[in-house]
Specification:
Oligomer: single chain
Radius of gyration: 23 Å
Structural class: alpha+beta
Largest sheet: 10 strands, mixed
Number of strands: 18
CATH architecture of the largest domain: 3-Layer(bba) Sandwich
Mean pLDDT: 95
CATH class of the largest domain: Alpha Beta
Helix content: 25-40%
Strand content: 15-25%
Distance between the termini: 37 Å
């Protein structure tokens, strides 16, 4: 699939309507929107789709209860509307998740009931369920591991929960279904200009090593934490647009909550909310908000962040997780709006989570900020601006009701393969075709060789990290087990891709180096 895309890019010398730089949530959304309107579209990602921020989220599709506390009603209303649309358009990946806020003080239960009822009202017809007060006994039944001393009951509310990297892969496939060309491991190394306007990009294939040029009418910089790198290709004197903030998550066994409900801690010692969210038979605990200076593809969790999540969890869970219980720790960087020059320094939790969209004098369109939940709205605004600034024909956005690749209304969420939606039958057909494709990658997981083959043939995976981190999610579920899967995964990939033993060895070594950073 990837080789065919490279051949098409080199063979087609006509200008592209949209060249989208960045294969995270935002860039993928822009590619889907532009291709869906009939524009000739190409998407380029320097590493793998969702390699950075977009695979490292709290796995929530949500309006943002914290933003409602701050009075940002417009932001919450927009996010809740998009939450409902995403639930409707990708039901195989986005589900209704019940969250519980435990109350230990007399005023908390009525206070949160009122606030969360307003949250429901803002969602309107796209709501997921009513927020309701809970008795102490019902809360204990829902979350058996909750600390019971002083517990007065709580409030239950509904939000969305999803698999972020799987959605990214499906968005790539949706863009391709709509006629776009998508290419991962393709780094944009420079911008081409004609008469002072951006007119194309230079690209290096990070796998094959070749470089080539693409001409385009509208160039979109949707590179998240790396937007300033592309902006400086256009104008080396530009001030920084983003300031990165790091958030980490700990993954533990589902027994640490004890049920199917999630928990939301509304105010931690640093003023943020903290979640405990069931996900693929695990629980994700997080997140933190730590200012950092460097933007990297593989950020490392800080010791103080790990201790913060463990300590905060221990204040609410009767059997708090210890370091030895952590199956995976992962860190991600958020592209927050940088403070204005000479402004007072602010904590990153106070910086804007809103997205920023702008057009440079050269015509370069830049979109950054926001969050997974609002990716579609961000993409719509970006394409609208691109049409206006780059003199492209007016065409109406069609993504509000567009079904995302793999759409399947009813899925069995107890089966891991439900994340493939309608593609699940084709993976099963692969297993039926060759008995060896039914072999598991690890005795403790349901991932099979067929999924590795599928990831290569249909999902553009080209490295062991692509497969184990973002196609089958093993790295994020149990980093030690993922390391054990690496040799077998590399062998399957080598056979499918025609690689030798040296390639296998190199891939395993590279993946193990990555996975070691996810282990405490």
């Amino acid at each position: 699939m990837r080789e065919n895309n490279i051949h098409r890019l080199k063979a087609d010398r006509r200008p592209w309507d949209f060249i989208v730089i960045g294969g995270g949530a935002t860039g993928l959304g822009v590619a889907v929107d532009a291709a869906g309107r009939g524009f000739k579209t190409v998407l380029l990602e320097q590493s793998d789709f969702a390699k950075a921020t977009s695979s490292r989220s709290t796995k929530l599709v949500h309006g943002g209860v914290r933003y409602l506390q701050k009075g940002d009603v417009a932001l919450v209303r927009e996010a809740l509307r998009e939450r409902g649309r995403l639930r409707r358009n990708a039901p195989h990946l986005v589900k209704d998740q019940r969250f519980i806020v435990a109350a230990y003080l007399w005023w908390e239960k009525p206070f949160y009931t009122i606030g969360l009822t307003l949250y429901d009202c803002l969602a309107g017809k796209l709501g997921l369920g009513r927020s309701l007060p809970m008795s102490r006994s019902k809360l204990i039944r829902a979350i058996p591991q909750i600390i019971r001393k002083g517990l007065r009951g709580g409030v239950a509310y509904h939000d969305g929960q999803f698999d972020d990297a799987r959605l990214a892969v499906n968005l790539m496939q949706t863009a391709v279904d709509e006629g776009a060309v998508a290419l991962n491991h393709a780094r944009v190394t420079g911008l081409l200009k004609t008469g002072g306007r951006v007119s194309g990009v230079t690209v290096r294939d990070e796998i094959g090593g070749e470089s080539f040029e693409l001409k385009g009418r509208c160039i979109v910089n949707a590179t998240g934490i790396f937007v300033d790198d592309v902006i400086r290709m256009d104008n080396s004197d530009s001030a920084p647009l983003v300031r990165p903030s790091q958030g980490i998550h700990l993954v533990v066994d589902r027994s640490f909550l004890g049920g199917d409900d999630a928990i939301m801690i509304p105010k931690t010692s640093d003023g943020r909310v903290l979640f405990g969210v069931p996900w693929h038979n695990r629980v994700i605990l997080g997140t933190t908000d730590t200012p950092v200076k460097e933007c990297v593809l593989e950020p490392k969790p800080l010791e103080e962040e790990i201790e913060f999540v463990l300590k905060t969890s221990a204040a609410y869970l009767a059997r708090p997780p210890q370091r030895k219980d952590v199956l995976c720790v992962f860190a991600g960087l958020r592209p927050l709006s940088a403070p204005k020059k000479n402004a007072d320094e602010k904590e990153t939790k106070e910086l804007s989570r809103r997205h920023k969209l702008m057009a440079a004098p050269s015509g370069l369109i830049t979109i950054t900020g926001g969050k997974w939940t609002t990716y579609r709205q961000m993409a719509q605004e970006t394409v609208d601006l691109g049409i206006h600034r780059c003199a492209l024909p007016e065409r109406k956005c069609v993504t509000a009701d567009m079904k995302i690749h793999g759409y399947m209304h009813l899925v069995d969420r107890s089966d891991w393969r439900s994340v493939y939606g309608s593609d699940g039958d084709r993976i099963q057909a692969l297993q039926n075709e060759k008995p060896e494709y039914a072999e598991k990658l690890h005795p403790d997981f349901d991932f099979t060789a067929a999924e590795v083959v599928w990831a290569i043939r249909e999902e553009m995976a080209v490295t062991v990290d692509d497969v184990l981190a973002r196609r089958v999610r093993a790295l994020y579920l149990d980093a030690r087990a993922a390391k054990e899967m690496a040799p077998k995964t590399a062998r399957i990939m080598a056979r499918e891709m025609g690689k030798d033993e040296a390639w296998e060895k190199m891939q395993v070594e590279e993946f193990v180096k990555i996975a070691d950073q996810y282990i405490l």
